[in-house]
# Entry
Amino acid sequence: MSHSDKSPLSPLIGLIVATLMLVLAAAVLSMAYGFEGGSGLFPRFIGWIFVVLAGSEVILQLKALLAQKQAGFTDNADVRQESRANLIKEMKGLLWLAVLLIGIYLVGIMITLPVYLFSFMRLSGNRSVQQSAIIALCSTAFVYLLFVLLLDYKLYPGIIFGA
# Structure
């Protein structure tokens, strides 16, 4: 969720986005409970943090919506148009997160990480192909070096390649 002083979301749109994040968090947590043994400990821990934060955001947005209704605030066409533009930005951000999680679930971390980073940096970050490739490759090499080689931790291979 992005909270800025320039152009806040209307509370209704904020509530919709926060609720979608909570649904996504619940889905991630339920998938984490499908992991066997110790490999599910970290995903479950992160999943619960994700659920608590998303749930807190839903509560905050619901409070803001109720406060707005009690104050009798009415918005004009400019505010509605700005809210729609902000909703599109929020939905794009949510879509990027969903793509990352689905990619990790399907093909694993080591394949998803460079593809996701390159795509995100190129399409959303407006970076050059060279910069995007360097960032994606260096980040993937760092994760491989740290987790696979140094910590001897088996990263999730995904349901397609891990079967």
User: Anything to note?
Assistant: Residues 18 and 56 are 9 Å apart (CA to CA). Helices lie at 11-32, 41-71, 77-107, 109-124, 129-150, 158-161.
